[in-house]
Amino acid sequence: MKILVTGTAGFIGSHLAIKLLERGDEVVGLDNINDYYDQNVKYGRLQRGGIIKTIEEGKDIPYCKVLISNTNANYKFIKLNLEDKEAMMELFKSEKFDAVCNLAAQAGVRYSLTNPDAYMDSNIIGFMNILESCRHNNVKNLCYASSSSVYGLNEELPFSTNHNVDHPISLYAASKKSNELMAHTYSHLFGISTTGLRFFTVYGPWGRPDMALFLFTKAALEGKPIDVFNNGEMLRDFTYIDDIVEGVMRVIDNPAKRDEEWNGKTGEISTSSAPYKIYNIGNNNPVKLMDFITAIENKLGKTIEKNYLPIQAGDVPATYADVTDLVEDLGYKPATPVQEGINKFVDWYLKFFGYNKDGSKK
Q: What is the CA radius of gyration of the chain?
C-alpha cells in the first residue's frame, strides 16, 4: 500500500514508518517538526529512516519540500502543517494514498492548560483537513490517534471503549474526543472507514522528552530529584512502543466495517452502522508509578531522589485498558513487561545522549 503517516518525526509515527517500510509498503511521512520539545530527537528519528538532509535542501514542489530517504526509495518526507488546507488537498491529489494513519497532533495534557490554541489548530482544524482530504480524494481507509485521556472522570476500571467518555478533564482529551465524533460523521456521510486508537501511556526508545520515563532517566543520570505527582499513587497502563505499532499495523490492514445489526438503541458505542470503530491499545496491566520508577532505578543501579506532590490538574489517577475488542477482532494483545521495555529505553537513552553503560558521561 501507499500510506500517508502524519507525525513521522514523532515518537509513534517514526517507529510505524520504519515497520511499514520493512514489510514493503510505500510511506509518505509528514510532520511540521515544531519546537514543543527537543528537535534534535525529532531529526534523529527521521535519520533512522534515511531522512538526513536539512529541510531546506528538499526538492521544491507546489505545496512543500520533499526529502527522499537515502536508505529506502519507498520513503519520502514532507514538512507541512496539517492546518494548511490548500497544501493538504494538493498533497492528497498528487500522491493518491491507499490509506492514511494520522498520528500528528499537539500532544500533552499539562501543556493544554497554558497553550490551548495549539490544540485547536493541530488537533481540530488539522484533523478536519485530513477528513476533507480523504473525502475529496477517495481515500476510504483512515486510522488516527485518539487517547486514553478521553476517559476523563470515568472511574469504572478497566476502561472499555463502550464506556461513556463525555467528561474529559483537559482540552487535549476534549480534542481527541472531538476527533472521534468528527470521524464518525465522515464515516456515516461519506463511507470512509475510520478507526480511532486510544493509546495508553506509550513508552520506549525514541520516546517523548516531556514524558515521565524520559524525565526520570535524565534526572537520575544528572543526580537531580524528580517530581512524583499524586504522591506516587498514580496507576498507568504503560504500553511499549513495539506493541503499539503492531496494533496500528493490524488496524491499517483491517479497515473498520459497518455493523449491519447496529441500531441507536442497543448498539455498542465503539462501533456503528457506519464503517467506524474505536479500539483501546494498552498493556491491560496497570503499574503503580512508584514501581515504574523502581524499574528505572533497577536498570541504572541508582536511587532517584523524589519530591512527592499532589495530583496535577488535568491528570487522571489511573488508566487501565480493556482490550477485548483488539483481541477478538485482530487477534492481538500487547504483552511487553515494563522492566523489559524500560531496559530497552535506558539502553537507547545512554547511547543517544553519550553516556557509558555505567551511567557516566563519555
A: 20
Q: Residue 242 in contact with residue 18, Cβ under 8 Å? A: no
Write down the catalytic residue from 75, 151, 172, 276: 172
**pTM for this predicted structure:** 0.94
* Distance between start and end Cα atoms, the chain: 43
Sign of CA dihedral 160, 165, 171, 177: positive
- The answer to whether 203 is a known catalytic residue is no
Residue that the C-alpha cell 492514511 belongs to: 100
Tell me the CA distances in angstroms from 3 to 13, 47, 79, 131, 134, one per residue in order: 12, 19, 16, 15, 12
DSSP state of 35: S
pLDDT tens sequence for the chain (362 residues): 999 999 999 999 999 999 999 999 999 999 999 988 889 999 999 999 999 865 555 555 556 678 889 999 999 999 999 999 999 999 999 999 999 999 999 888 878 888 899 999 999 999 999 999 999 999 999 999 999 999 999 999 999 999 999 999 999 999 999 999 999 999 999 999 999 999 999 999 999 999 999 999 999 999 999 999 998 889 999 999 999 999 999 999 999 999 999 999 999 999 999 999 999 999 999 999 999 999 999 999 999 999 999 988 878 889 999 999 999 999 999 999 999 999 999 999 999 999 998 888 88
